[in-house]
């Protein structure tokens, strides 16, 4: 089947499937086109899911059909939802891998620059043999299961921990009705991780899903659910900074986090999808009394990204930190930001967003800061800085601040700037050429966020930025 | 052959003419001090020699007999030219150590791991009385005036240029910082490095011996002499020269 399609469309058609060139979903297709209730049932059946999950999917599908596309934000008119059939269909392990030759040259070049090992390259480009997720998780949870920590893939969690999943999965945090894409996700989600940390348990090292894909179609709509009970602490890291090639055009993940009283959760994600991908995610945390929720993230790849991690500070003294980097090059739109809802007294938050655009890319900080009525003693600070590397790129800030409490201390700073001529001249007068000077300045600019990343990510992030800034001046 | 040779150099910024024809030879191993009132064009001259693109230049400037003006700032630095800024620029988030390691590699073609470069940097810093934590701070970020000037001296000492252009290394400093910067210049000079120092004060001559002293006024050199000229200016003011 796949070979036939490849003959029909040709390899070039696949490679040209970037948003700026109009045509998107050229990947292989299954016999039945379009998203249907029958397909929802089929997925659930193939996965051997319990009845309640099927119902949840069907309910989500009905909402998806009824909801209009978002009327704000980046242009999504070229996203052909009917063409999504191909990847939402569970292909299982018999799916044919992507041929190595299909992987665009720029992605192969980046692999070289990052020194990604051969096996991982194939994996990242969808060309590898499958990963067995059960084996993967087993090795990851080696030392933590005796602490009572549950760490498994989401599909297994549905069967093994139905009570927990039922209680938290797309209920209070991100219900299907939240938005068009969360509804789509609810109907067709597949894969992802489930993390449960019991009361008082502090997970000693970060839970890391470096390669979250295990076979084609697995990672497009993964669902991550993290529950930290009272006084627990956990760090979860997902994604990778190496470029991630997929033929499919939509990534629509949902992340739900429950930070129980006095707990501490840090969620770190790095995204570097190939540029034919619409990356439309919903990530949210419910943060209880005295709990601390930290979001650390970088979005490097994809064509269009819409991502606004949200912290709902529902308990007194809860705190949220959002630290993000967005990079937009040619043909990329990054509509990203943070939402913080202060819904209890004495809650506090800090948002730092750093974005860089070049080559005609668009970065837009879109954020919401809400302080509810009667929430006294709230402190919130938002800082968003952008660097525009040339004259054709765009950086914008769209902050919404809605404060309904008199004594809230709210700060908002935004700075949009070009790379300063003085800084360039200063570094060049030391013998550093213009390209390297620009990448040094940019690295310095994102340093406050990069220093929060695990070392291997930080190193890769810096190398990627360096590559990305190459030839951006002169 | 002079190390640096300027002939009828004219410099302007936009419509404004700042340097109106300067000719000057700086020989190998020589120290020249340029004095003059604010606005006389001293800083512009040094910045232009380092390649600041915001100035338009006419005339000739040769460095070791080769045309300097056609080179970009980083190429000039690699040839062995160094400008110590009057107001060093902040580059937040980039440590002095990481920048200097790159600059060192560019200057000497000697790329080395951070740990190895650290040894060179530490030795140079110690010689100037600079403490380690200094390297891991952002370049000039949140530094006092004195710290910034010392950062310039450390960079100068590591990059060992053929010719150092020092733009008011003694401005805006308290007595202690002045002593420190002066001592640093004296130490660095010991290896025979050529220098052009722009200053308002003859005080710099306590730590370094000048071969020539020039006075600039309205974009021209109006007087040249030896150290006595500097002391006389300090005593009688610039107007004395102009009379």
What is the structure about, briefly put?
The complex is a heterodimer of chains A (474) and B (243). Helix content of chain A is 28%, strand content 28%.
Structurally, the number of domains of chain B stands at: 1
- Globally, the shape of chain B reads globular
Global structural class of chain A: alpha/beta
Counting DSSP H or I runs of 4 or more residues, the number of helices of chain A is 13
Helix content of chain A: 25-40%
**Residue runs with pLDDT of under 50 for 5 or more positions of chain A:** 1-32, 86-97, 127-132, 211-219
**Radius of gyration of chain A (Å):** 22 Å
Overall 3D shape of chain A: globular
* Total DSSP helices of chain B: 8
Highest CATH level, the class of chain B: Alpha Beta
Q: Which structural class best describes the helix and strand composition of chain B? A: alpha/beta
The tally of strands of chain A reads: 21
Low-confidence runs of at least 5 consecutive residues of chain B? none
CATH topology of chain B: Rossmann fold
Widest sheet of chain B: strand order? 6-9-10-3-11-12
3D structure, described in words:
The complex is a heterodimer of chains A (474) and B (243). Chain A is α/β, with parallel strands linked by helices. Chain A has a domain at 133-421. In chain A, 28% of the residues lie in helices and 28% in strands. Chain A has helices at 2-15, 37-46, 51-66, 85-88, 105-114, 118-124, 133-140, 154-160, 162-168, 180-188, 421-428, 434-450, 455-469, and strands at residues 150-153, 193-197, 207-209, 223-228, 233-239, 250-251, 254-259, 264-271, 278-280, 282-287, 292-299, 304-307, 310-313, 319-328, 333-336, 339-342, 348-357, 362-371, 379-388, 394-403, 409-418. In chain A, the strands form 2 sheets. In chain A, strands 1, 2, 4, 6, 7, 9, 10, 12, 13, 15, 16, 18 and 20 form a 13-stranded mixed sheet that branches. In chain A, strands 3-5-8-11-14-17-19-21 form an 8-stranded parallel sheet, covered by helices on one side. In chain A, helix 2 packs antiparallel against helix 3 (51-66), helix 3 (51-66) packs antiparallel against helix 10 (180-188) and helix 11 crosses helix 12 (434-450). Chain A is globular and about 65 Å long. The relative contact order of chain A is 0.09. Residues 1-32, 86-97, 127-132 and 211-219 of chain A have low confidence and may be disordered. Chain B is of the alpha/beta class and 243 residues long. Chain B has a single domain (4-242), classed as Rossmann fold, CATH 3.40.50.300. Chain B is 36% helix and 29% strand. Chain B has 8 helices and 12 strands. Chain B has helices spanning 42-49, 73-79, 96-108, 114-128, 145-159, 175-189, 227-236, 238-242, and strands at 4-13, 16-26, 31-36, 56-63, 66-67, 81-84, 91-95, 138-139, 163-167, 194-198, 212-217, 220-225. In chain B, strands 6-9-10-3-11-12 form a 6-stranded mixed sheet, sandwiched between helices. In chain B, strands 2-1-4-5 form a 4-stranded antiparallel sheet, with helices on one face. A two-stranded antiparallel sheet of chain B has the order 7-8. In chain B, helix 4 packs across helix 5 (145-159). Chain B starts with a strand and ends with a helix. The mean pLDDT of chain B is 93.
């Amino acid at each position: 089947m796949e070979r036939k399609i490849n003959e029909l469309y040709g390899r070039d058609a696949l490679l040209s499937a970037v948003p700026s060139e109009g045509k998107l979903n050229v990947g292989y297709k299954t016999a039945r086109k379009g998203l249907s209730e029958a397909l929802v049932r089929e997925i659930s059946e193939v996965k051997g899911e319990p009845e309640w999950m099927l119902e949840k999917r069907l309910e989500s599908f009905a909402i998806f059909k009824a909801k209009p596309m978002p009327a704000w934000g980046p242009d999504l008119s070229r996203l052909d939802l009917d063409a999504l059939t191909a990847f939402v269909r569970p292909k299982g392990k018999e799916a044919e891998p992507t041929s190595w030759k299909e992987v665009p040259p720029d992605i192969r070049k980046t692999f070289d620059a990052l020194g990604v090992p051969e096996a991982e390259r194939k994996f990242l480009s969808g060309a590898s043999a499958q990963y067995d997720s059960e084996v993967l998780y087993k090795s990851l949870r080696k030392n933590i299961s005796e602490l009572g920590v549950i760490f498994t893939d989401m599909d297994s969690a549905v069967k093994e921990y139905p009570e927990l999943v039922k209680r938290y999965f797309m209920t209070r945090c991100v219900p299907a009705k939240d938005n068009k894409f969360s509804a789509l996700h609810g109907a067709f989600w597949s894969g992802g991780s489930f993390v449960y940390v019991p009361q008082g348990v502090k997970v000693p090292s970060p839970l890391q899903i470096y390669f979250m894909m295990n076979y084609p179609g697995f990672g497009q709509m993964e669902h991550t659910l993290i529950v930290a009970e009272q006084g627990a602490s956990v760090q979860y890291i997902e994604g990778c900074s190496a470029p991630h090639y997929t033929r499919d055009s939509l990534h629509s993940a949902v992340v739900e986090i429950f930070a129980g009283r006095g707990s501490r959760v840090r969620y770190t994600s790095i995204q570097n999808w190939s540029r034919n991908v619409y990356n439309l995610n919903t990530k949210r945390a419910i943060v209880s009394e005295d709990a601390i929720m930290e979001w650390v993230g970088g979005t490097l790849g994809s064509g269009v990204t819409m991502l606004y991690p949200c912290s709902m500070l529902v308990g007194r003294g809860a705190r949220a930190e959002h630290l993000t980097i967005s990079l937009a090059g040619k043909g990329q739109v990054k509509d990203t930001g943070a939402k913080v809802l202060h819904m209890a007294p004495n809650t506090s938050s800090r948002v730092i967003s750093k974005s860089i655009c070049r080559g005609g890319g668009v970065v837009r900080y879109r954020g919401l800061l809400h302080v509810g009525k009667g929430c006294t003693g709230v402190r919130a600070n938002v800082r968003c800085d952008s660097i525009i590397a040339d004259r054709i790129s765009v950086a914008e800030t769209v902050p919404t601040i809605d404060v309904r409490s008199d004594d809230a201390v709210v700060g908002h700073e935004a700075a949009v700037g070009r790379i300063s001529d003085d800084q360039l001249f200063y570094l060049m007068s030391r013998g550093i050429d213009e390209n390297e000077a620009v990448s040094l300045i940019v690295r310095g600019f994102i340093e406050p966020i990069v220093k929060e990343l695990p070392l291997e990510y930080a190193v890769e992030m810096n190398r990627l930025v360096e590559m990305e800034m190459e030839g951006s001046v002169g | 052959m002079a190390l640096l040779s300027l002939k009828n150099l004219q410099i302007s910024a936009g419509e404004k003419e700042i340097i109106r024809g300067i000719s000057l030879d700086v020989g190998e191993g020589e120290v020249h001090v340029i004095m003059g009132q604010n606005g006389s064009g001293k800083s512009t001259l040094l910045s232009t020699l380092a390649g600041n693109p915001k100035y338009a230049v006419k005339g000739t400037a040769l460095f070791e007999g080769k045309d300097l003006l056609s080179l970009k700032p980083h190429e000039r630095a690699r040839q062995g030219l160094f400008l110590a800024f009057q107001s060093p620029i902040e580059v937040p988030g980039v440590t002095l150590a990481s920048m200097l390691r790159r600059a060192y590699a560019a200057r000497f073609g000697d790329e080395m791991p951070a740990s190895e470069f650290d040894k060179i940097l530490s030795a140079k810093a110690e010689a100037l009385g600079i403490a380690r934590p200094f390297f891991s701070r952002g370049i000039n970020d949140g530094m006092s005036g004195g710290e910034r000037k010392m950062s310039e001296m450390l960079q100068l000492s590591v990059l060992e240029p053929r010719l150092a252009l020092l733009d008011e290394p003694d401005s805006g400093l308290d007595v202690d910082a002045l002593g420190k910067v002066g001592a640093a210049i004296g130490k660095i000079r010991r290896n025979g490095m050529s220098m052009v120092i722009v200053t308002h004060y003859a005080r710099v001559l306590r730590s370094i011996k000048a071969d020539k002293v020039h006075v600039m006024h309205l974009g021209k050199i109006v007087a040249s002499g030896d150290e006595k000229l500097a002391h006389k200016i300090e005593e009688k003011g610039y107007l004395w020269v102009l009379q």
